Amino acid sequence: MNLFYAEPEAIHDDSILIEGQESIHIAKVLRHNIGDEVFVTDGEGYRYCCKIELISKKSVTLAIQGKKFMEPTEPSLSVAIGLIKKRDRLEFAVEKITELGAGEIIIFVGDHSEKSSLRLDRIENTVLSAMKQSLRYRLPHVRFFKSTEKLLEEVSKSGAIIVGDETEEQNTVDSVKEMISDVGRVTLLIGPEGGFSEKERALFNKYNVLPCLLSTNRLRTETAAIVMTDRYNN
């Protein structure tokens, strides 16, 4: 099954208007015809079963046959990744953690992050593509913070924070999950390639960040993000 995306404002009581690349994908790439059945999500939890009603050069009009609301998973999961210099590695990490169930993607600049430009539009496109590929019905929100402290200050207001820490000797992801089993939102924190500074580690105590050991081996940032997300969700 292929899943397509339509922004909520493009969805009406009995029809959906698909434009841009999504319409090209339906009509030109997959060569769908009038009357074919397709599935659409609004990224807010709804799956729409539709039939193609009209195909034009710039859009596809769908007739809604039925819709189903997919309940969100709990707790809500955010994954915060320290900025990676190489764009392809960052986008790979974002793609995989979206497929694995992250409800929010956060990119932040750590003290040891190497200078690098960040195009949030590319990250958002990667997230959208991964959501459709993995047949998810909620589009993860993407946020960016210019420092670890600003990130911790914000996310600590609404839930627990777990950091993957190679210096940790006792806690595992599973043991930390048990400590915070009653919280509604969890943020997984993965440092940049250079790890965390002493200043950032001092902030962990200030904001009650819970450390856990992911592996006895040193993991790259993108590997740690994937491993941590997968272990938390399983």
Number of helices: 7
Backbone CA Rg:
20 Å
Count of all domains? 2
The helix/strand class is alpha/beta
Q: What summary fits the major beta sheet? A: 6 strands, parallel
Q: Give the N-terminus to C-terminus distance in angstroms.
A: 25 Å
**Strand and helix order:** EEHEEEEHEHEHEHEHEH
Overall pLDDT: 93
Strand content: 25-35%
Query: What would the CATH topology of the largest domain be?
Result: Alpha/beta knot
Q: Under the CATH scheme, which architecture of the largest domain would be assigned?
A: 3-Layer(aba) Sandwich
Superfamily (CATH H level) name of the largest domain: SPOUT methyltransferase, trefoil knot domain
Portion of residues within helices: 25-40%
Uncertain residue segments: none
Strand order of the largest sheet: 8-7-6-10-9-11
Explain what the structure shows.
The chain is of the alpha/beta class and 234 residues long. It has 2 domains: 3-69, Hypothetical PUA domain-like, domain 1 (Ribosomal Protein L25, Chain P); 76-233, Alpha/beta knot (3-Layer(aba) Sandwich), CATH 3.40.1280. Helices cover 32% and strands 28% of the residues. It has 7 helices and 11 strands. It has helices at 20-29, 87-99, 120-133, 148-155, 173-179, 198-206, 221-233; strands spanning 3-5, 15-19, 37-41, 46-55, 59-69, 76-82, 104-108, 141-145, 160-164, 185-190, 210-212. The strands form 2 sheets. The protein has a 6-stranded parallel beta sheet with strand order 8-7-6-10-9-11, with helices on both faces. It has a 5-stranded mixed beta sheet with strand order 1-3-4-5-2. Helix 2 (87-99) packs parallel to helix 3 and helix 2 packs parallel to helix 7. The longest helix is centred in the middle third of the chain and has 14 residues, at 120-133. The radius of gyration is 20 Å and the shape is elongated. The mean pLDDT is 93.
